[in-house]
Amino acid sequence: MTRPYVAIRSGEPLHRRSFDVLVLGGGIAGLTAAIGAARRWRVGLLTKSTFEETTTFLAQGGIAAAIGEEDSPDLHFKDTIGAGAGLCDEEAVRVLVNEGPDRVRELMEICPRFDKVDGQIVLGREGAHSLPRIVHAGGDATGSEVSSALAEAARVGSRVQLYEDEFVIDLLTVDGRCVGALTLNLADGGLTLNVAMVTVLATGGAGQVYGRTTNPPVATGDGVAMAYRAGAAIRDLEFVQFHPTGLAVPGQQTVQLITEALRGEGAYLRNAAGERFMTEYDSRAELASRDIVVRGMVAEMRREGTEHVYLDATHLDAAWLAERFPSVTAGLREHGLDLATQLVPVAPVCHYFIGGVVTDVWGRTTVPGLYASGEVASTGVHGANRLASNSLLEGLVFSDRVVRDLDRYIGRLGEDVRRLSFDIPEGASGEGDSHAASARSRLTGIMQHKVGVLRRGADLQAALDELNGLTSELRFSQLGEAEYELLNMLTLGTQIAKCALLREESRGVHLRDDFPQLDDERWREHITLRLPEHERTEGVGRVGPA
Ligand code: SIN
Predict the structure, then answer these.
(1) DSSP secondary structure string, 144-185?
(2) Is residue 128 part of a domain?
(3) How many domains does the chain have?
(4) Within a domain: residue 365?
């Protein structure tokens, strides 16, 4: 049985903090929610590492929004739905595209460094957008520009209390409501009960479950796993988006992303024979939606027996490439590669988790008091295949809505949950090696080889058996970040394999070699998971006056 709370080291004192609103996560979704909520409430924002160690910080492409003269929310809606392979939630997409332009303009007030020419915002193009609509900053350094500006606004211009290096062990629940989170400080090992009337989950994605990923080391799926343990519905876990152009050289921990904006500016994909091949697969060629480009690449690699194809930007102007793509240029140079003169080896790489914690269009999860925004959430805007550069936009738009809705939630609460007390189960406190590192490498190996970009039923079943075996073998002699992350990653990996095995079709980013066709009759639906009622409530900590 899955316990509602993960255990803590025995005999450890528990510190306590209380807030009106607790925000978990330091990327665009978390910072936007915290800054907005702090206008009215006492807000604490906890991030697992630093504000530079987030997926937002690494984002290269930019933010999609219908702000161009030729553009409209209707066109953005059509492109998003078109990419989503039949599973987008239309109401959520309407919210995204209609509210997006205002949220982006507000962000530009905080982050004035978006790229302009003659005072006009420059709009870039990416796959499956019918026209240029991506705003970017510092060329391909949008994420770091936006993150730094938002973190500065939170530090200096708002009343948000910021805490770095705070690992969330578990959400705190009382009678099925979320009332905060239990954390482990990674610098001093202290354990803290962070009690709050509202908790906003903005913990990002889970790329580390695959080992090879564009995501930073913090992306271990903690938010989805802890929300699931707390009783929240999660869905669409099989839809793991592989970005077509990860740099394919050995020995990278975090795989260098080669932004899609390069193809938007005219770069080609070539096979080992040096031929452009995407023209054979889609009339939009290299600018087809990501799932179609990945399918084309996989087919070419299989036909040629290779592990990668090539990105070719050698026909583009060298000086302009260096100015427009400074991060990619510098990253490639570290590998001895020159974008302007050489073909760059690229292969699909785990990039984005489309699935997550189910929310409505106000960011409300199925657990009262718990909101989710950003990559951890499943608002339904991405369907089965996310349109490029819609993810930062999703964080902006839905965090703004969370802020608007939580006023209503707190107003109706009528009880000060901050006085509650909790019994948290205690577990191992010994020294010794828990072998978490070797278990983690087994897990990532299984995911990479058996639940990767092209899936087969027999592999998925084998993966599921191995992951279940790995889970039942776990014996922790201590409880720290490595053990907690491993538990979360195993939860995610197991559920991804389970959902991928169930979905006997190919749709969007979910590619089944044994079921290559779309099957609308059976599968135009979400796979939603939720702990059974008795597992959500049994063993929940005692609640009493503080
Ligand atoms: C990219 O720059 O290609 C990534 C953008 C995204 O994932 O939306």
Answers:
(1) HHHHHHHHHHHHHHS--EEE-SEEEEEEEEETTEEEEEEEEE
(2) yes
(3) 3
(4) yes
Residue 428 has pLDDT above 80, yes or no: no
Contact indicator for 178, 171 with CB cutoff of 8 Å: yes
Q: Same domain, yes or no, for 111 and 222?
A: yes
Report the greatest alpha carbon distance in the chain. 72
290 included as an active-site residue:
yes
**From CA 437, how far away is CA 514, in angstroms rounded?**
33
134 lines ligand 1 (CB under 6 A): no
Cα separation of 45 and 309, whole Å? 42
Residues 83 and 226 in one domain: yes
> Residue 512's domain spans which residues?
436-525
Q: What is the pLDDT of residue 545?
A: 25
Secondary structure E strands in 186-295: 191-201, 234-235, 240-247, 268-270
Token pair for residue 232?
């929240």
Mean pLDDT of 381-400: 98
| Residue 486 backbone zone (phi > 0: left; psi -120 to 50: alpha; other: beta) | alpha
Q: Is residue 105 located within the same domain as residue 229?
A: yes
As a whole number of Å, the end-to-end CA separation of the chain is 29
> CA of 102: how far to CAs of 96, 105, 286, 376, 414, in Å?
11, 5, 30, 23, 33
Among the residue ranges 221-235, 249-263, 485-499, the one predicted with the least confidence is 249-263
Residue 203 near ligand 1, beta carbon < 6 Å: no
- CATH label of the domain that carries residue 450: 1.20.58.100
- pLDDT surpassing 70 at residue 374: yes
3-state secondary structure of 369: coil
Distance in angstroms (rounded) separating the CA atoms of residues 38 and 99: 21
Q: Please, how many CA atoms are within 13 Å of residue 43, restricted to the half-sphere of its CB?
A: 26
CA 127–ligand 1 middle distance (angstroms): 10
Which pLDDT score, from 0 to 100, does residue 478 have?
86
Same domain, yes or no: 27 and 159: yes
Rg (CA), the chain: 22
Tell me which amino acid residue 538 is.
E
Cβ of residue 61 lying under 6 Å from some atom of ligand 1: yes
Percentage of residues in the chain having pLDDT higher than 70 = 97
Do 345 and 383 fall within a single domain? no
Q: Measuring CA to CA, which residue among 368, 419, 367, 421 is closest to residue 542?
A: 421
Residue 140 Cα: closest atom of ligand 1: 2
Helices and strands in the chain: count of H runs, count of E runs: 16, 24
Report, as an integer, the average pLDDT of 430-448. 91
Dump the DSSP string for 174-215. ETTEEEEEEEEETTT--EEEEEEEEEEE-----GGGGSSBSS
